[in-house]
Amino acid sequence: MNHKYASDSHNHSDCSPDGRSTPQSMIDRAHELGLYAYTLTDHCECNDYEHNYRGRAEKAWEAMEKVKVPEGLIFLRGIELGQLPEDPGAAREVTATYDYDFAIGSIHNIKDEKDFYYIDCRSKRKGEIDSLLRRYWEEELEMISLGHFDALGHLTYPIRYIQGEQGVEVDLTTHYNSIDEIFRSLIKNGKALEVNTSGLWGTLGMTMPDAGLLKRYYGLGGRLLTFGSDAHNTENLGGGIDQAMDTAREIGFKEFTIYRRHKPQMLPLE
């Protein structure tokens, strides 16, 4: 890694349904890469907590408790809370049960819809896509108001699939008012904005959110940033972190944050 304090605060092990590497192998890879801090954040989909994720959360926590952390690496225990507005009680319960350092709040699918991964927008009209996005922004705002998390994950998650995977161009400028409202709510509620770098090693070709939106966040006074590769295996761990940190510095950010016991620890972007 090119940055002294490079840290990856969003990634998944095989304790997540779509993860492919063990927690120990992810930690060993983080140390090999020279990461300053590594936070493992396996999935907990709140809307499916009772049926499938209560046990997964327990399994993930037990796995994190058993790992051996190499000397020189800061290991932090985290979780990604998906669809929090659909069951805030699940988020409240799991974060009270386990002593996490960090929780990401994410929306992968809006209410009564499939994950954006499964929605084919190539045959949809622009108005239909814009409608899906408006509902998505609304649920992001609702999630911020509910709390139970520290950083908002991959703000532009739908774009990963609509544009990155399906090649359907989306004009986000028509959604700037909604996105600015999300930024203001994050700032007001003391929540961080995640710079998700999976688009840099994936098909999207940009971070989520991209540099233009990061500039808007900065211009509104936002200063809490986390960085996460969203890797689901050792091969992609840390991917894009250095590039995203360089971009943040160019925009004007001087610091970013990692979380210990849900408290932000500011680190220099150097």
Give the key terms:
globular; alpha/beta; two-stranded antiparallel ribbon; TIM Barrel; 270 residues; single chain; 9 strands
CATH superfamily: Metal-dependent hydrolases
Q: For this entry, what is the oligomeric state of its chains?
A: single chain
Strand content: 15-25%
What is the helix content?
25-40%
Helix/strand class: alpha/beta
Instruction: Give me the count of strands.
Output: 9
Unreliably modeled segments:
none
Major beta sheet, strand line-up: 1-2-3-4-5-6-7
Order of helices and strands: EHEHEHEHEHHEHHEHEE
What CATH calls the topology is TIM Barrel
Mean pLDDT: 98
How far apart are the termini? 11 Å
The CATH C-level name is Alpha Beta
Task: Summarize the biggest pleated sheet.
Answer: 7 strands, parallel
- Number of distinct helices: 9
Q: Which of globular, elongated, flat, extended, rod-shaped describes the shape?
A: globular
Task: Give the domain tally.
Answer: 1
Second rung of CATH, namely the architecture: Alpha-Beta Barrel
